[in-house]
Design brief:
Layout: H1 2-41, E1 55-57, H2 71-82, E2 87-90, H3 92-98, E3 107-110, H4 114-120, E4 124-127, E5 133-138, E6 141-147, E7 163-164, E8 170-172, H5 179-185, E9 193-196, E10 202-204, H6 208-214, E11 216-217, H7 223-229, H8 232-243, E12 247-248, H9 250-253, H10 256-259, H11 268-279, H12 284-293, H13 297-300, H14 302-309, H15 315-332, H16 339-362, H17 366-382, H18 389-404, H19 412-417, H20 422-436, H21 438-452, H22 455-463, H23 465-468
Parallel strand pairs: 3-6, 11-12
Antiparallel strand pairs: 1-10, 2-3, 2-9, 4-5, 5-6, 7-8, 9-10
Helix pairs in contact: 8-11, 8-12, 14-16, 15-16, 15-20, 16-17, 16-18, 17-18, 18-20, 20-21
Length: 491
């Protein structure tokens, strides 16, 4: 009897202790999960918002359904909500669903800090230096989770600030805030749309729904300030305009030509990633035309801009146009594309121009002049766009084989066709032939027949080279040689 009494007392104490611990843990979680965010970057009462009046679009008034959302993204939203945090789908995924497109990825924003997201999701990893965020990994799908961004300037010394360059570019931005501040920090109005699983409503902070209806790409806030904060926004404006078949708003478009020079401050590795988005996603031609019109090509590829300016015959623009259109067609039918071929097309004429200049000025042979020209042009490009080695090597192979494609006598044509990079070099020759015509077109047609013929037919094609008059090797210019003075006569 006595032992049973003490057993009940012990259970009661244990229960009370467990309840107290639970309340303490719950208090800590709520304090760390919300109060710390508010204290770090609550907007000042005196600060005037650049956002229009918030519009809440209820579930029955919009077309976004959970059926259109990745199940893994929904898991992230619900788990953050159940853990006591705010969580929203944001940006491009909502925009694309409203436009009837299939989103490529789903991004989540929350008031939980990256470390807190890491605690909720053991299958996550923290990345980023400029802005810290979490990647929640579900097999091959990754859901990106970012904390609400706050204002990076304040009215006093205690206000959080981001690291900025003298030109106004944000270098580091781990300043957290509220959903309203996060909306102000978004780049374009069409990307400031937030979808909540708490009420299935869309929160429109910057008239994004109206911009989508008007098919207009417009920056949130002062365009010059926003471009200075992140010059890559100029590239994003172009990419969204072509991808979504929209126009850049005049006030957002006007400063681009003047501010495009700021792209030189962007890390080369980041610009390569942007290059892939611009030229490998099915809108290469449209993006190239707009980038050229806005003066951006001059900043990214100055050698190309120079030869385009000197292109009186139109062959440079014609070849690039054909290369971009071919790439877009391959993407449309789900065929593989490579940035190596695109870079080879964009930079071929700068290489050719430099090689010709070396031939005249230095008296080098064709092979050496081409090799030096290739290295010089690629080295200059690497300063602005970091092309990985696996692509730069392929670019050089395509260029180098152009000179060998004209040398077909004997067994050369047979050996050349066995080269791993032959197909890429041949496709590139076809591209040049369509742009220039003449002897290049004859050469491309010969190689087409050579590939499609049998062994006997190929032998005949090689034997008839001299008769057809195609195998004409250009005479190499040599610098004038000085005659040695004759010695004294023997007498």
């Amino acid at each position: 009897m006595i032992s049973r009494f003490f057993h009940r007392v012990h259970l009661a104490k244990l229960t009370r202790s467990t309840a107290i611990i639970s309340r303490v843990l719950d208090f800590c979680r709520r304090t760390l999960g919300s109060k710390s965010v508010e204290s770090v970057a609550q907007p000042k009462k005196s600060r005037q918002s650049i956002l229009p009046e918030l519009k809440k679009i209820s579930r029955d008034a919009h077309s976004v359904s959970r059926k259109d959302i990745s199940p893994n993204a929904l898991k992230v939203l619900y788990r953050l909500k159940d853990a006591g945090y705010e969580a929203y789908l944001v940006g491009g995924c909502i925009r694309d669903i409203l436009l009837g497109l299939k989103p490529k990825d789903f991004d989540v924003v929350t008031n939980a800090h990256p470390e807190q997201v890491r605690q909720v999701f053991k299958n996550s990893r923290l990345i980023g230096r400029r802005f810290r965020l979490a990647h929640v990994v579900f097999g091959r799908e990754v859901i990106e989770v970012a904390t609400f961004r706050g204002h990076h300037t304040g009215d006093d010394e205690t206000s959080p600030k981001a690291s900025q360059s003298d030109a106004g570019q944000i270098l580091r931005d781990n300043v957290y805030g509220t959903i309203e501040e996060d909306a102000e920090r978004r780049d374009f109005s069409i990307n400031a749309l937030y979808y909540s699983v708490a009420d299935f409503a869309i929160y429109d902070f910057a008239n994004g729904i109206e911009a989508i209806a008007a098919r207009k790409i417009e920056l949130i806030g002062d365009p010059e300030t926003r471009y200075r904060e992140d010059p890559v926004r100029m590239l994003r404006a172009v990419r969204f305009a072509t991808k979504l078949n929209m126009d850049i708003a005049p006030e957002s478009k006007e400063p681009i030509k003047e501010l495009a020079v700021l792209l030189k401050n962007i890390p080369a590795a980041r610009l390569f990633e942007e290059f892939l988005k611009l030229f490998m996603a099915g809108k290469a031609f449209d993006n190239f035309v707009m980038l050229n019109d806005l003066g951006i090509i001059k900043q990214l590829l100055p050698q190309l801009a120079k030869v385009l300016k000197q292109d009186s015959s139109g062959k440079v623009f014609n070849m690039i146009t054909k290369a971009m259109q071919d790439t877009d067609q391959r993407v449309a039918i789900d065929k593989p594309v490579t940035p190596a071929f695109t870079f080879a097309a964009l930079l071929w004429y700068p290489v050719e121009q430099r090689a010709e200049k070396l031939l005249v000025e230095s008296g080098l042979n064709e092979v050496d002049a081409l090799n030096i020209a290739m290295m010089e042009v690629l080295d200059e490009v690497q300063r602005s766009i970091a092309i990985p080695k696996r692509f730069s090597l392929t670019i050089k192979d395509i260029w180098f084989l152009q000179s060998r494609l004209s040398k077909r006598a004997g067994r050369r044509a047979f050996k050349l066709m066995e080269q791993v990079k032959f197909r890429g070099a041949y496709d590139f020759l076809q591209l040049r032939a369509q742009a220039e015509g003449g002897e290049l077109l004859e050469l491309a047609n010969w190689w087409q027949r050579f590939q499609s013929d049998d062994e006997a037919g190929r032998e005949i094609l090689v034997q008839n080279l001299g008769k057809e008059g195609i195998e004409r090797r250009p005479r190499r210019r040599r610098p004038p040689t000085k005659r040695r003075p004759s010695g004294p006569a023997n007498g």
